[in-house]
Amino acid sequence: DADVTQTPRNRITKTGKRIMLECSQTKGHDRMYWYRQDPGLGLRLIYYSFDVKDINKGEISDGYSVSRQAQAKFSLSLESAIPNQTALYFCATSDPEGQGASSSTDTQYFGPGTRLTVL
Amino acid sequence: QKEVEQNSGPLSVPEGAIASLNCTYSDRGSQSFFWYRQYSGKSPELIMFIYSNGDKEDGRFTAQLNKASQYVSLLIRDSQPSDSATYLCAVRDLYNFNKFYFGSGTKLNVKP
User: Fold this and answer.
1) A80 to chain B nearest CA, in Å?
2) In the beta sheet, which residues pair with residue A108?
């Protein structure tokens, strides 16, 4: 069973449309992240959240917004999609208190990704 | 702007050889370093993390850290075709430990 899930997995949309990408996790982690991945640019942080009351901008938050509906859910919205937002989007969680099975307190667990194409 | 640099590759090695992947970072005070493996079309998964100067071994993988020279490397011994993937280096932000900076990754091809 996947611990971090993302919906949809693929989406094609048109310029100007509003899009929401959803992320859910069953790991019980407080910290959640949204990244985008572009060829040759690696993963870049869009937003991150420590808990439902704490949301922070990352490197490239312009044109995006997020909502932390619950500990387990973190949504990313593109209010008015543009073609240069075409990318692979990943949600991730982390457990800095080291309560997971892994010995690493800094491991980020990634969802399967959402491939978004904006025409 | 914090930078994490990796050679994009592809790095091609024959099966059974040692693959050496390198990463440099710009923030001299960085303390925590991570290697992720990403298969094509899949999400990254953590291979190793290293915090102290020197070598850290885990099975066929060895991470090497040299803070004075600001580089971290990953050695894969006895490379297998199943190791063919993109390897991402990540560095944790010195002042905000909840933030991570990723390199663009090195693509490794292990030829049978």
Assistant:
1) 26
2) A94
CA distance A8 to chain B (A): 15
Is A40 in Cβ contact with B104 (below 8 Å)? yes
Is residue B87 a contact partner of residue B106, using CB atoms and an 8 Å limit?
Answer: yes
- CB within 8 Å of chain A, chain B residues 45-104: 45-46, 49, 88, 90, 92, 97-104
CA distance, residue A69 to nearest chain B CA (Å):
20
Query: Which tens digits make up the pLDDT trace of A53-104?
Result: 999 999 899 999 999 999 999 999 999 999 999 999 999 998 765 444 344 4
Q: Which amino acid is at A78?
A: L
DSSP-assigned states of every residue in chain B: ---EEE----EEEETTSPEEEEEEES-TT---EEEEEE-TTS--EEEEEE-SSEEEEETTEEEEEETTTTEEEEEESS--GGG-EEEEEEEE-SS-TT-EEE---EEEEEE-
